[in-house]
Design a protein that fits this description.
This protein is mainly alpha-helical and 136 residues long. The protein has helices at 2-66, 74-131.
Length: 136
């Protein structure tokens, strides 16, 4: 009878490890999806900022022209400097999104590793239970 209970206990340990692995894999998938979402959101934000800033620079240039100022030297330099700053901000936003995605993928990999460890732990526990069973 002891072998029967040992077998059931071993199977339960293995099943528990498999359930934990499935849970960690689900968590990993969610982390990757979150990373993809963060990157997509950053991309959308960068595009929105680029568009808004481009429109703002065009309005400034038009205001200079309407005011009788030619777009040479200082006014043009100001607009170009603002354009460079705007491009840098958009680049930084994209870079932040990529970093968030990379972190989420790293966390997903850790979750998958934990899942494998849980499965192997369940198998080892089951094997240990069977090894300690009274086979007589």
């Amino acid at each position: 009878m002891s072998i029967f209970f040992s077998s059931v206990s071993a199977a339960a340990s293995i099943a528990a490890g498999a359930v934990q692995q499935a849970a960690f894999n689900t968590q990993a998938k969610a982390q990757e999806e979150e990373g993809n979402l963060k990157r997509a959101e950053a991309q959308e934000e960068a595009i929105r900022i680029e568009k808004e800033r481009k429109e703002a620079r065009a309005k400034v240039g038009l205001a200079f022209i309407k005011g009788g100022v030619t777009l040479q030297f200082t006014p043009l330099d100001l607009i170009e400097e603002q354009e460079r700053e705007d491009e840098q901000e958009a680049y930084s936003i994209r870079k932040r999104g990529f970093a968030q995605q990379k972190l989420a993928f790293a966390n997903a990999q850790v979750s998958r590793s934990r899942g494998r460890a849980a499965l192997l732990g369940g198998i080892a526990s089951g094997a240990s239970t069977m090894a300690q069973a009274d086979w007589t």
